[in-house]
Design goal:
Elements: H1 3-21, H2 28-35, H3 39-51, E1 55-57, E2 64-66, H4 68-97, E3 100-107, E4 110-117, E5 128-130, H5 137-140, H6 146-152, H7 169-182, E6 185-188, E7 195-203, E8 209-218, H8 219-222, H9 226-243
Antiparallel strand pairs: 1-2, 3-4, 3-8, 4-5, 6-7, 7-8
Helix pairs in contact: 1-2, 1-3, 2-3, 4-9
Length: 248
């Protein structure tokens, strides 16, 4: 392969990555300005990428976005990397906090652990727990608006599994807003009495929340350490997000 061909491929990939990294679909002019490159050259690269089926362009707004084919492949790759990198992140969380650590995802209106590092106790992998009071619930619904929360919990009965469990959507939303302000969620006595957790969302390359990293342990031991543990879990969740391709 000639040096010129390699250079051309590199420029095309830079354009593809710039289109993929945009928060919203972008025009060729916006992408060229972001890259600081000639608009005509970038436009040609975008057309080639569209022809190859890697990008799609809206005929009315003329904005480019990742094709569903490429997005599907990228999602599969991110999932595979999550399963590879997750255990090391969980191990670090356990070493830093002394608590059990989990990666959980949304399934229906419940939270299910997909990976865990539990020094002692029963495994939670594959077991579902209601999102409204689960240790990972707030982190998993981090980006939801009030309307979206209403839809998620439309058929949910808010049973008090723990003494501090939220009694409805409004109470859950208030705790979620406080968690966003803090940077991580704190769940104390919601899933069951005396159980304490901190949690933070994990995002993939598109910015979508794919899972939550959280700890779990006795309130009497973990509650006094909440600020330190919260920063640890947020930092590890952000690092895992970066490994999955997320760039804020």
């Amino acid at each position: 392969m000639s040096a010129g061909t390699v250079k051309s491929m590199g420029r095309g990939l830079n354009v593809l990555f710039a289109a993929a990294a945009a928060v919203e679909p972008s025009t060729s002019t916006q992408i060229a300005d972001r890259l600081g490159r000639n608009r005509v050259q970038v436009s040609r690269s975008l057309q080639s990428l569209e022809t190859a089926g890697l990008l799609t362009r809206d005929p009315s707004t003329r904005v480019y976005s990742l094709s569903w084919r490429l997005r599907t492949q990228a999602t599969r790759a991110a999932r595979a990397r999550l399963l590879v990198e997750g255990p090391a992140i969980l191990r670090e969380a356990v070493e830093a906090t002394g608590a059990s650590a989990f990666l959980a995802e949304v399934r229906g209106d419940g939270s299910v652990a997909l990976l865990e590092d539990v020094p002692a106790g029963l495994s939670w992998v594959g077991r579902s727990y209601p999102l409204y009071c689960d240790d990972a619930g707030q982190a998993l619904l981090w980006d939801c608006t009030r309307e979206e929360l209403e839809a998620v919990f439309a058929g949910t009965e808010f049973i008090a599994y723990g003494p501090a469990a939220p009694r409805g959507v409004a109470e859950f939303e208030a705790r979620l807003l406080a968690a966003r302000e803090r940077g991580y969620a704190v769940v104390d006595g919601e899933s069951e009495p005396g159980v304490f957790a901190v949690a933070a969302p994990v995002r993939d390359f598109s910015g979508r929340i794919v899972c939550a990293l959280h700890t779990e342990g006795p309130s009497a031991v973990l509650a006094p350490l909440v600020e330190r543990h919260g920063e640890v879990i947020k930092g590890l969740a952000d690092r895992l997000s970066a490994l999955l391709g997320w760039r804020p």
